[in-house]
Structure formats: structure tokens, C-alpha cells
Specification:
This is ABC-transporter type IV. The protein is an all-alpha fold. The protein has ten helices and four strands; from the N terminus they run H-H-H-E-E-E-H-H-H-H-E-H-H-H. A hairpin with a 3-residue loop joins strand 2 and strand 3.
């Protein structure tokens, strides 16, 4: 009985601590006080459940192992599982996702991510090895009856808070389901309009989750439509790229031949005139050597051959 009462008190202590953490983080993000959580009071049961389950699990393993590494692993797994299941079932029930880590690295369906899991592990180590010994010392300073009265009063207030908050969530669910919008921003406006003429408790909830993501069937249908359009565009782009690659392979040989012909034509066009003349003279000399025979040549042919040789020597001596 003593352990159970202490565990209930641990639940409420860390529910309050979690609420303080969330309020501080949202104040830094939005610059104003936001009463976080779907409950009216200053507590977030998801934190309390995590701390209580870690305490219970580690206590069950005390005879076997109670090292820091084991505590870290248990805390990471237990709190990660609680966060994932809470996100999943609340989305299924109320058509809204209260937190989304889709843009975070190493996330699982946007419900948990590695950064939070590591913090859960570190927090669990701090709870078991630092905070709980202090809390249990404070609890032991009170009589069992006093602790039972405190735990009982807190439980009654908590259950009353849960009942009222549950009705608020049902109203939110009605607003979400009745909305004709197909995007989460428009649905959020519809919900705030629905809650605007209600009591302060209803209006508080509308402001508690400014970044809530609504997932109605229409929103899911619109998201699926966008996904299909994106997939269609991707397939068309891949098809066009394949066609261009095939066209390139088909024309590659023709392009290579055209390039070679162009290079040859360019080479012939840019070849120096002097070089062409030199080649021409060389070939003329080769032809004359084949046709001219000194033993049978006539006097005029010998004279002409001498003049050609003289002019060739003059040309070779020139540098321009």
C-alpha cells in the first residue's frame, strides 16, 4: 500500500513538472503563456505516466539490475512507447495530431524522434537516481494517512478535470468532423469559431494547441490527392528523361560523324597556304622525278629542269 501511494504521488509530481516544462517551451516559442495539455489543471499526465512506469519497471528489476545504463534503456523505451501510443490513439479518436515530428531526423511516423528518446533516457536516469530518492525522503516524512489523503484529493480533482476536459474534446471532435474544409488551417479556424462562444475552459483548449494538425477524412483525401499528383509528375518526368536518353543514344552516332566531318573541314580551312604550297611543290618534284630521265632528255628539257631546280632552291632559302 505504501509503495502504491508513493507511486500515485510520483505521478502527480511529474505531471506538474511536465506541465511546467511544456509551458516554458511554448512561452519561448510563442512569447505568451499557454496552458498546455487537454486537462484544465496544471498537469500533463503523459509525463506522470512516464515517470510512474519507469519507477515501477526499475523497481521490478531491482533484484536483477539497477545500473544507469539499464535505467536509460528502460526510460527510453517506456517513454517512447507512451508518447507513440498517446499520439496514435488521440489521433484516431479526435482526428487531430497534437504533436508532429515529421520534420525531425530519425522519427517514427512523426510521433516520436531520436532527440526526445535520448532526453527520455536522460530524464529517466535523473528521476530514478536523483529525484526519486529525494521525493521518497519527503514522502516518508509524512504519515501514511497524510499521503493517502493528499493522493485521494489529487485523484478526485484529476478525475473531475478529466471529465470536463473530455467533454471539451468531444466538442472539438464534433467541430472537426462537421468541418467541410480539406486542410488543417481551415479546420483549426472552424474549431476556434465553434469554441469562441463557449466558456473560458473551451476557449483555453483552442489556444492550448496552436500548432495542432487535424487529420479528418477530407484532409487525408486531400493529402492522398497531392501524393498521387506528385507521384504522377515524378513518373512523367522519369518517362520524359528516358525518352531523351533514348533519343540521345539514337542520334549519338550521327552527331559523332558530323563532329568528325566538321573537324576535318575546319582543319582544311585553317591549314596555312604556305604549307599547302610546300606540299604541292613536293608532289610536283616527285612527279618530275618519275617522268624525267637525264639520259634521254632533250636539251630544252634539260634547260627547263635546271631552271626549276634553281627556282626551288631560291624558294627554300626564303623564310617567308
Amino acid at each position: 500500500m505504501d509503495f502504491t501511494i508513493n507511486l500515485i504521488l510520483v505521478f502527480f509530481v511529474f505531471s506538474f513538472v511536465g506541465w511546467c516544462i511544456e509551458v516554458t517551451l511554448k512561452y519561448r516559442q510563442f512569447g505568451r503563456f499557454i496552458n498546455r495539455g487537454f486537462l484544465i489543471g496544471p498537469w500533463l499526465p503523459i509525463y506522470g505516466c512516464g515517470a510512474a512506469l519507469i519507477t515501477l519497471t526499475v523497481a521490478g528489476l531491482t533484484p536483477v539490475e539497477r545500473g544507469i545504463g539499464t535505467t536509460f534503456a528502460i526510460s527510453l523505451i517506456v517513454c517512447g512507447l507512451i508518447e507513440y501510443l498517446a499520439s496514435y490513439f488521440m489521433e484516431k479518436k479526435f482526428h487531430a495530431r497534437w504533436w508532429d515530428y515529421s520534420q525531425k531526423p530519425m522519427n517514427l511516423h512523426g510521433r516520436v524522434w531520436i532527440g526526445n528518446l535520448i532526453l527520455f533516457g536522460i530524464g529517466g536516469v535523473a528521476i530514478i537516481h536523483i529525484v526519486n530518492p529525494i521525493l521518497y525522503g519527503l514522502f516518508d516524512s509524512l504519515s501514511l494517512v497524510s499521503r493517502e489523503i493528499i493522493a485521494g484529493c489529487l485523484s478526485v480533482v484529476f478525475l473531475a478535470d478529466y471529465s470536463v476536459s473530455h467533454f471539451v474534446l468531444k466538442l472539438v471532435k464534433i467541430g472537426v468532423e462537421s468541418s467541410e474544409a480539406d486542410n488543417t488551417e481551415a479546420i483549426s479556424k472552424d474549431v476556434k469559431l465553434l469554441l469562441s462562444d463557449r466558456s473560458i475552459f473551451y476557449r483555453r483548449f483552442a489556444n492550448a494547441y496552436p500548432d495542432v494538425i487535424y487529420r479528418t477524412e477530407k484532409v487525408k483525401a486531400r493529402m492522398e490527392e497531392i501524393r498521387l499528383e506528385t507521384e504522377k509528375f515524378r513518373l512523367e518526368a522519369e518517362k520524359r528523361l528516358d525518352e531523351l536518353n533514348q533519343q540521345y543514344e539514337k542520334n549519338k552516332a550521327e552527331w559523332d560523324a558530323s563532329i568528325r566531318a566538321g573537324k576535318e573541314q575546319l582543319r582544311e580551312t585553317l591549314e596555312p597556304t604556305g604549307f599547302i604550297k610546300s606540299n604541292l611543290i613536293e608532289k610536283q618534284n616527285q612527279l618530275i622525278s618519275l617522268l624525267y630521265d637525264e639520259s634521254t632528255a632533250t636539251a630544252p628539257a634539260k634547260t627547263l629542269m635546271s631552271e626549276i631546280e634553281h627556282e626551288r632552291l631560291r624558294l627554300e632559302k626564303r623564310s617567308w
